[in-house]
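Components:
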Amino acid sequence: MRPAVITPMVTPFNPDGSISLEMTESLISNMKKFRVDGAFPMGSTGVFPWITAEERLKFLQFVAENAGGMDLYAGVASPCVEDAIGMASRSEDMGYDFAVLPPPYYIKPGDEGLREYYSKILGSVDIKFLIYNIPQFTGYYIPFKVLENLAIQNSNFVGIKDSSGDIRYHERLLRLKTRAFSLYQGQDDLFLQSVLLGSDGGVCGTTNFAPYVVEMSRLVESGKLQDATSIQSEKINPMIDALKNDDYPSTYYYAFYKSINGNGGYRTPMTRPVNSSTHKIDELLRQV
Amino acid sequence: MRPAVITPMVTPFNPDGSISLEMTESLISNMKKFRVDGAFPMGSTGVFPWITAEERLKFLQFVAENAGGMDLYAGVASPCVEDAIGMASRSEDMGYDFAVLPPPYYIKPGDEGLREYYSKILGSVDIKFLIYNIPQFTGYYIPFKVLENLAIQNSNFVGIKDSSGDIRYHERLLRLKTRAFSLYQGQDDLFLQSVLLGSDGGVCGTTNFAPYVVEMSRLVESGKLQDATSIQSEKINPMIDALKNDDYPSTYYYAFYKSINGNGGYRTPMTRPVNSSTHKIDELLRQV
Amino acid sequence: MRPAVITPMVTPFNPDGSISLEMTESLISNMKKFRVDGAFPMGSTGVFPWITAEERLKFLQFVAENAGGMDLYAGVASPCVEDAIGMASRSEDMGYDFAVLPPPYYIKPGDEGLREYYSKILGSVDIKFLIYNIPQFTGYYIPFKVLENLAIQNSNFVGIKDSSGDIRYHERLLRLKTRAFSLYQGQDDLFLQSVLLGSDGGVCGTTNFAPYVVEMSRLVESGKLQDATSIQSEKINPMIDALKNDDYPSTYYYAFYKSINGNGGYRTPMTRPVNSSTHKIDELLRQV
Amino acid sequence: MRPAVITPMVTPFNPDGSISLEMTESLISNMKKFRVDGAFPMGSTGVFPWITAEERLKFLQFVAENAGGMDLYAGVASPCVEDAIGMASRSEDMGYDFAVLPPPYYIKPGDEGLREYYSKILGSVDIKFLIYNIPQFTGYYIPFKVLENLAIQNSNFVGIKDSSGDIRYHERLLRLKTRAFSLYQGQDDLFLQSVLLGSDGGVCGTTNFAPYVVEMSRLVESGKLQDATSIQSEKINPMIDALKNDDYPSTYYYAFYKSINGNGGYRTPMTRPVNSSTHKIDELLRQV
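Structure:
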């Protein structure tokens, strides 16, 4: 089976920091051209914490209306139970297939509190949920025993997006499969290794502006592992190295704007990557 | 001069998780009885991330109306510039003297983005601001050069609350004083050492249910350092050790409810501390 | 080509903590039976820091004389340049093919100091060297630029053992190949992924008592990736999970002693794993 | 009582990296001129890991013979029980009053193993021992319960040197005093705060080249806390900031050599601090 490729969408901004729906159309065009399988607005790459609730909902609505044909994943993150329920419920109404939910950040809850957090939210909305492990931002890994418990008790917990970059945690997630949930790799440079281990696909930021991960996915499907490995090593990994030369996720925004020749902006506290960081990105984008 | 003591207020909950204004009155009574100098609702101890925007404003309003005589510090945290401006502006309207603002959390901005974040917010609302350093929750320290730059450019940046627990960072904050901002220690067990170094006071969680820090402050004022040291070592530090036996800040809630004989609740994802953790707290509270 | 499998040998102890050459013979028998390619005494698994210089040399000598047919890798770690040179020189005299050298630990040197450390040692002894990256114990990663510089200037720097467990660092090591050095994975549970990425083999602790990694290596050679993946997932990774249930490397000693029905000891500061940790190891060893 | 001040001695090197006994005499002159209370050769500042066993013993002997009048503390660190016993025993023979022993580094032992490590060594040599907590280099804190157990069982465990820089851990060490052991602060910039909390003194690297900490100690003795605070804030802390501008402990060596106008060297893997780091040190040394 071909591994799924989902785009964690940037939220295109005008130079004044307001959201640009026009550039969002260009982004969706990119994604259709690359033939990605799913659209995921208002994730970390979409800088949801820097965006008002009203804007989030408006953007989710716009993507739902314009990304026809793709699976729709709504970012519904909030440490506040009531807010997360509201966001998930509204997303369901808009036609989203899935809601993606990281654990509460800022203050780390205990295991039992974390379990209650997810149980209350998953028990309140019918939409299918992906749980989102991203310790770089939340400060902690979601414990296996919490995931196992949730998998048993919540039939609408259907998947995990793991962006930890820790391939051992990822591999253990595959082994603990207490029931059928899907697993997605959130790091482009670990995509191939993860699907070879058994992951169902990836949520890959470079698909905002480059088709590489989709190409790899097709090569995996047709058994051309050697060619897929070449793309991973020669195209994606150097790109990821270059994207890490400045603050996340400003380089993804820069690369996306460049890919559509757009005059895009950087909402505060994001700033344009410095020139020494963009040089290498420019060079790699010319090869796309 | 007597060091200031500010209470980072718990947000009292009913057993069903809704906010209890009745127990909030009891909390304010505690604070008046202990003679704390300032009231700080909707900080980390107030679990602001787990509370809706509407509830936050309502609670801020209630405290403003009932904590007369104390300095008023409003927690206005949001990684979103527009939301933080809105919260600070509303707090000013309610009569708050200060707004307390941690840096953006979840995604860590670069230094220039961080400076812009604060500049935009401080430049948009006239209220006086305390910047809040709490790397345990945000994932990073606020760099000195950002603080120095902000101190020069923003006349309404009047203070720092440092909850890092890192006495060296705290001491360097005192030395970098490029202009007159106040410095407050956010950790009860470092209160005495910090004011002896030159800090202006503390934002101390135990003042939700115990008068110790205020007592210490008065002893410092009258030069009785030996007695102050005894309180720090024999009363406060053992209490802090006991409070760390379970998830923050659930033990502060437990101790507060106990101090008013209240039937309080724990909003998800917070859970009641387990019995093995509360035993020691009970014992220490009996000595208050 | 078949990926190499090297055993980072435990140092068998008698119950009184002295080294048992008799059990060392049993260990070498295990390794020959499993058909590992290389013997690596006095590495981290061999607890070199807890062993006197005299004992180290005696043990190295014994292995050199008894592990005929295998490639010989000598652990020559010392933060002291002169001691490392002495150890490498003596190992060369004993017939070792390679010397394995981690960077200075306890105090972290700067990059230039680190480069000088390796340059002096590699420039003083003709033996071929493997550089050993193990940030868990040294406190830091060996920077890429140091490795690149050393690779250019030292013809007897022929390989890297990377035990970081960080698959991205490992993959970048493959890409930075400024010249032909070999790369070995030091973590059993990342063996298969690493050789699929291009690594030359593994230094795998489970080969002290189980043949699994060698079996995987043979399956990789014959293109049976599916079968290799099964061994990795079903045999090795659960074993590694079980070995992590108590202090490293005491569980490896326990498992080895069990595999030879030996009455082995644990040199201070190592202690026998507690019974709750050994239960799962026992169960898995019965399936070997 | 006047807090004790002990010098963790640099090991003076000639430009070729060999040990200079001539500059060691100059160092001891510095220490006598500053009136420090104790001499501590072969600690971390003395870069013991980079020095052969033979050189260590020779240097310890030289200091014992030339530092008359000061208390003598011998650095006897080794993760190997037998080596540590040997070093402590030889130090006792040389006339040292105390042996200073950090826990095993590189591989972290379990709590029981750590207790056994200390018990075996302290039980084998009559010399009084200071246990040395330095998590920056060992990778872990010595657990309180291990210290409590050792304090009960070993009458020659007489003190702790705590270089963690964690004032809370330090303060808890004071409170856990299950019996009379002394506590010394290993960080110059925390000296004053620690002795005010109750510590018995400090092991302070700046006393290799500056008298400040001793001056502070005398001011504390005579109750002039304000003056002591000025030295801490205006002299010591800026010096410590400057010393941190390059790799530890190369800046301490640079400052010492400068203080005696000596042409000193840097044993590999230490390198001379770069000029941008030494500029500030030069400036501060001119004020000594």
